[in-house]
Amino acid sequence: MATHDIAVIPGDGIGPEVVDAALPLVEDAAAASGVTFETTRFEWGTEYYLDHGEMMPEDALDRLEGFDAIFLGAVGHPEVPDHVTLHGLLLPIRKGFDQYVCKRPNVLFEGIESPLRGYGSGDIDFVVYRENTEGEYADVGGREHRGLAHETAVQSALFTRRGTERIVRAAFEAATEREGHLTSITKSNAQAHSMVFWDDVVADVAREFPSVDVERLLVDAAAMDLIRRPHEFDVVVASNLFGDILTDIGAQITGSMGLAPSGNVHPSDEYPSMFEPVHGSAPDIVGRGVANPLATVLSWSLLFEDLGERRTANALWDAVVDQLAASSAPRTPDLGGSEGTEAVVSDLQSRL
Amino acid sequence: MATHDIAVIPGDGIGPEVVDAALPLVEDAAAASGVTFETTRFEWGTEYYLDHGEMMPEDALDRLEGFDAIFLGAVGHPEVPDHVTLHGLLLPIRKGFDQYVCKRPNVLFEGIESPLRGYGSGDIDFVVYRENTEGEYADVGGREHRGLAHETAVQSALFTRRGTERIVRAAFEAATEREGHLTSITKSNAQAHSMVFWDDVVADVAREFPSVDVERLLVDAAAMDLIRRPHEFDVVVASNLFGDILTDIGAQITGSMGLAPSGNVHPSDEYPSMFEPVHGSAPDIVGRGVANPLATVLSWSLLFEDLGERRTANALWDAVVDQLAASSAPRTPDLGGSEGTEAVVSDLQSRL
Ligand SMILES: CC(C)[C@H](C(=O)O)[C@@H](O)C(=O)O
Ligand SMILES: CC(C)[C@H](C(=O)O)[C@@H](O)C(=O)O
């Protein structure tokens, strides 16, 4: 069997803590299911920026391109503006490797209390397919007349047919493998240029998937409904910005940002996909050894699933599910516990 | 004392139901506090559109301009696209009368159960100042190459210094009259053209208000934090789109869209301000007599407050607060009751 080559970018803040802690566990899970992989570490991020004036070297994408997948810890630093750090590392990789599917499962696991009254384990289980390369995050716009009374800033959201069709199609495909229910998020009532176009594309692609039942929901109503009736969602497809907001709500209602995994997927072999926990670099808890490694472990699970290594993927996912369900298992403070990263990982090890 | 001239546009769906039911109550509250007002009804909306091909007559703004305030029920119809109905009535008034402050209080009233665990009466009390005339809802953009593989849609968010400064300043002023805490919502890490500009304006205006403590929060984090720690918010200032999303979350965590009032305020005498419940036309319950009139009554309260008629404003607000706190008072189905609009209004009447 071929060895998978994985690039690992631990990044900033708690990124290296969770990545380093999880790696031995991931290796064990792979070994136990007969999968071999090798990791190559890239020490890029804000430290690198402070030394070199850039978040990663100019040829970073060339160096990453040959890998089968990328694992990213976190990016962001309290002393460097986000539009420097993110635009210097995370976003160029998402865009450069055309990782147009940002896939974010939201599951309320057994043993986790949702902040929503009346919701218990298993009641929430949906996945968001977020467009990840264009839309409201397109680097199109500008600012004129700085500091003057008529100063004006423009930020243009860019939606292409190709870009929209492919994320919508990916979401429809996911729906056929789940409950067959797709919710498309729009704001057509106020953004008639972009969102009416989005609706049209959804209507076009829907014809290819007659078995999928499609609901259109305005982003403001969707934000409400994720609080009011999250159990009714199955697959959600949304633009870059809307998906960003709704997945954070999804993480919150399923208990903790510390449990939210994600994949930035380019669905062909042309480029590597990148997997990362949804949480950020969490400067407030850096160095204290209490960062929750579970989103990292779940993100590795998504990575192996994407590589077709279902057994490894399941072993990691199930270890997390088991641990959360066990009332005496160690937990980090964000989940109400008082244990550290290492204790959580060694407990997972015993559940492989 | 001068008579206030109020234009009333009942609009679509449950709009006329809640407007008509509430009006006698509003008249009584005004009379009891020595305030006189006259209403002029405008039967504009989707019915009008189906007859005339437009949501309101061409000279609508001229006809509304002389009024002291406008009360709007709801706009929207299941058979006519929102970008027709809203762009034909609601949005032209907001923009035409330069109603740049969309003010939306979010209060968890006694007697209302929040969907959030652990939150009880009084625990949530913040107000959102949403920019209401530009930003992501600017009608700037277009769509080319329709139906072709290279079709592209652009939706440009437009932020002007004047437009941004004035909403930010209004929010700072509100903060000085409340707890002195302002949260500014951005997405500067991904929208570097518009949102870094927004941050700069906030920093500029902040210098005029040294007593106000300012927090910057990314919109995705804010959506999470409204679920995780809503009690910590006081005044929130946000762009048109971000304010839209966050106020819907605010309505939901404080129990019901049926309780959320709003004002579209132009803060000088040049144009009338417009008040409306945040809920829409609710086609699913039209004609059943069960629409919740409370958001309408609270919106009238905001209207009188804006006209400087504090006693009338308080009488209406307090009647709602009283009713909600009374466990035996009638409630509409959205609040878990089984009574209708009329029963709720007559109970309010007894509490004036
Ligand atoms: C850090 C930021 C640019 C990023 C985004 O909005 O895409 C993050 O919020 C996420 O959701 O991955
Ligand atoms: C109907 C729609 C255009 C409107 C908006 O987004 O402004 C509504 O959602 C609101 O919040 O008042």
UniProtKB/TrEMBL annotation, chains A, B:
Its cofactor is Mg(2+); Mn(2+). It comes from Halobaculum halobium. GO terms for molecular function: metal ion binding; oxidoreductase activity. Residues 328-352 are annotated as: Disordered. InterPro entries: ICDH/IPMDH, IsoCit/isopropylmalate_DH_CS, IsoPropMal-DH-like_dom. The keyword Oxidoreductase applies. SUPFAM superfamilies: Isocitrate/Isopropylmalate dehydrogenase-like. Keywords: Manganese, Metal-binding, NAD, Oxidoreductase. Residues 5-348 form the Isopropylmalate dehydrogenase-like domain. This is Isocitrate/isopropylmalate dehydrogenase family protein.
